[in-house]
Design goal:
272 residues; alpha/beta; six-stranded mixed beta sheet; 11 strands; Purple Acid Phosphatase, chain A, domain 2
Amino acid sequence: MPTTEAILFIGDIFGKSGRTILKNRLNDYKKRYHIKAVVANCENASGGIGVTPAIARELLSQGVDVLTSGNHVWRYREIFRFLEEEKRMIRPLNYPPGAPGHGMIVVELDMGFRLAVLNLQGRVFMDPLDCPFRAADACLSKLTLGRDAHAIIVDFHAEATSEKMALGYHLDGRVSAVVGTHTHVPTADARILPRGTGFITDVGMTGSYDSIIGMETSSVMPRFLKGLPTRFEPETSEATLAAVVIEIDRANGRCLKMTPVLAGGHLLGSHP
C-alpha cells in the first residue's frame, strides 16, 4: 500500500472553454501525477455564472470525484434539488440552515482511501453568511484528520487574501490543505504551513485568461470606462487549466508537497 497519495484540485471551471480543457487534459494529468482523487470547483461552469445539473453530471462523468462551489452556485434553480440528491457536489457549509445541499462530504476511493472535502465561503467583501471559521471548527470537532479521513481538503471560496490566509493558519494541522478559489487569478504562494497544512491563496481559474476573469474584454470594458451596466459574455478562446497537486502522507494526512499546475493557454509558465 502506498505511503503517500496525490490529490488534484482544479480551480474555478469557467464556461465552455474551461470544460473543454478539463475534458482534454484530465486523464493525462491523472496519469502524470499519479492522482488518487480529483476535486474541482464548478460554480462558473455553465456560461461563466452558475452550473446546471447536466454540466455537473458531465464533470463527474469525466473523472472528477467531488465538485465544490461558491456564491454563484444558486444561479439556476434546478441546481437546488440536484444539491440535495447528488452528494458528490457540495456548496459552502456556512450558508444558513435550510439552504439546499450540504457543505462537506467524505468519499471512499480505491484501496480504502477516505477523502473529506469541506467547502466554505468568505465574508469579507462578500455576502454576510455565517462565520466560516466557526463553521469549520464545528465540522472538524466531529471529523479528525488521520482517524476519520486520510485527507481533508478545504475549498475556501473568498475574495480577500487576508481572510484566506487567516483561515489557513486557523486550520493548520487539522486539515491536509486549504485552497483558495473565487478570484480567478492564480497566486504564487503555495506552501506548507508550520503544522503541516498545505496552502495556496488562490488556485486560479480553469478558463481563458485572454479575458477579464473569464468574460470577454469587450463586454466588460464599458462598465469601467462609462460606468454603464453591460451584459457580460464568457470568453471562448483557448483556456488554461489551473490546478494544484497536493501530496499527502497517508498515515497522518499532513501535506508533503504543493505543486501548482498550469496547462494550455497563454499564461507564462503554463505547459503546452
